[in-house]
């Protein structure tokens, strides 16, 4: 728990108290944890693995809002404002999650200002990210959006060796294009082009990116 950003200010005694009210559960890849518009009853912390947070159109198209990986948390909005889930959540790989009931989560916020502040900071960051995404969709062309999204993914999920970043791929092409906010053929075209310029390569399950060259475009 000490590795979870939300709980980083707490002492061992407080962490133990939280551990005793968390439930640890393992979910197979592809498990939908909850759907958008359902009532929220739990708060989630990713212990291992990763989860995609997404919204869907009535035609069944998806838009990924964010990826939650080890140490990240989600599911707080509906517990705080009492409204339905604002997005759906699905595991991208076999994952172990810690869950807190709505009551325990709200009690934590009441009793620990540090945790409340962390949640507020997390909400601020999400609003900033969303503003940035609106900017990108409004002002950037599709190719730049794909490149920017690859850089973001590399910075968040990659391991670095010199200029090369390796990302273990848990997303398919549909999901990558949804994240960047471009049509799949455009994503494929940009990735082919980057591959020809030796900026991007696939090695087994890993995508390798030359970050210095990628920033140059
Ligand atoms: P909740 O609405 O309870 O359920 C869906 C969760 O997804 C939500 O709480 C947040 O934790 C998370 N979420 C929703 N929208 C975003 C977003 N734009 N960026 C990051 N996380 C989000």
Automatic annotation (TrEMBL):
Matches recorded under Pfam families: cNMP_binding
SUPFAM superfamilies according to UniProt: cAMP-binding domain-like, Winged helix' DNA-binding domain
GO cellular component terms, A-Z: cytosol
Keywords: Activator
KW Nucleus (keyword) present: no
Residue ranges of every copy of the Cyclic nucleotide-binding domain listed in the record: 6-126
Molecular function terms, GO-annotated: DNA-binding transcription factor activity
Matches recorded under CDD domains: CAP_ED (cd00038)
Classification via PROSITE patterns: CNMP_BINDING_2, CNMP_BINDING_3
PANTHER family, A to Z: CRP FAMILY TRANSCRIPTIONAL REGULATORY PROTEIN, HTH-TYPE TRANSCRIPTIONAL REGULATOR ARCR
Protein name per the record: Crp/Fnr family transcriptional regulator
Taxonomic source organism: Paenibacillus thalictri
Record lineage: Bacteria, Bacillati, Bacillota, Bacilli, Bacillales
